[in-house]
Structure formats: C-alpha cells, structure tokens
Amino acid sequence: MTSFMYQLPCPKLTLILKSPLLKEPLLDVPEELNNFDLAVDYSISLEQMVALGRFDWTNEKIIENFEKSGTGNVTLSAKIFRINCRLSTEGVVVEMGKEGLRPATLMEIIAFGVNYPEVQRCFSIMALGSYCKISGYCYVPYLCELYGERNLNLSCSDGGWNEGCHFLAIRT
Questions:
Q1: Which of 70, 111, 120, 122 has its CA 20 to 30 A from that of 57?
Q2: What predicted TM-score, i.e. pTM, was given to this entire model?
Q3: Which DSSP string corresponds to 5-38?
Q4: Over the stretch 64-100, which tens digit does the pLDDT of each residue have?
C-alpha cells in the first residue's frame, strides 16, 4: 500500500486508502467507497463555476478556450478511475466504458473541486470529457495541488497517460 507523507484531509478518501480490501491504491477499491455524488449547476457561467471552486490558481487558457456545456441542475454519480498501465486517451476512455463510465467534462471536474475540494490535494485528477487545441496540441483540464495551493490547470493529452494517473469518471 502506498504511504503518504501527509495526512489525508478527505474522510472518504482516507477510508478508501485504508481499506483492508485494497491491494493497490484505487485499483481494487470497494465500489461503495469510491462513489461521489456530484451536484453540477449548468445554469451558471463557466467563470461563475470557476469562482465557486475557490481555486488558488486557474490557468487563464481554460476561460479563453472552453465553453460551458449542459443545462440545468443535475446530480451525477462520479468515481476516481485509476489506470494501471500506460494508455492513450482513447484507451482510457475505452477502459472507462467497460465499467459503465464516461470521462468527466470541464464543468463536472470543476463541480468536483467545489464539492470535494480536498481530494485534489492527494493526487491530480484529469477530465478527459472536454479538451481544447492550443498551438496544435490537445489539452484537458485537471485538478491538482502545487505548493499547497489548489489549482485548475491544463495538461497536454497528446502523449497519453502513465500508470497511476487518476481521472474523474461519471457513471452512465
């Protein structure tokens, strides 16, 4: 089991990582512990949603290059999806689909940051359901912590994803 150098701030995540059933972090997580109810308000603007997240830093390219998607207020069921080998973005999406999941969108990952602000302090969480092209490269939004600050940033997805990457997935 992975040991962390800091105390996990999220009680649900602490339960997940301390589970006796866990063989590797977030690979064999009991389903009942990796279930996050996610309230998403699509009626507000992207700028308002980012402000609700109270991120310490937000990549300005997100507001410049993404548009809001969805309408109304919805409650979704989300989970953290971790890969155990190097995969392309398409490969991650295929693996999610095998479990009845789809990749989260920008609005959904921001809502995750609003609803569960401390989880991103444990590891970066990618959202493959939204992307933009900047200078010919494909970028996806993600949540992370850097130097103790919560960030909403962009990651280039063209090179694929390494073993151990975490993604926000939505149950379909």
A1: 70
A2: 0.83
A3: SS----HHHHHHHH-TT-SSTTTS--GGGS-EEE
A4: 999 888 889 999 999 999 998 999 999 999 999 999 9
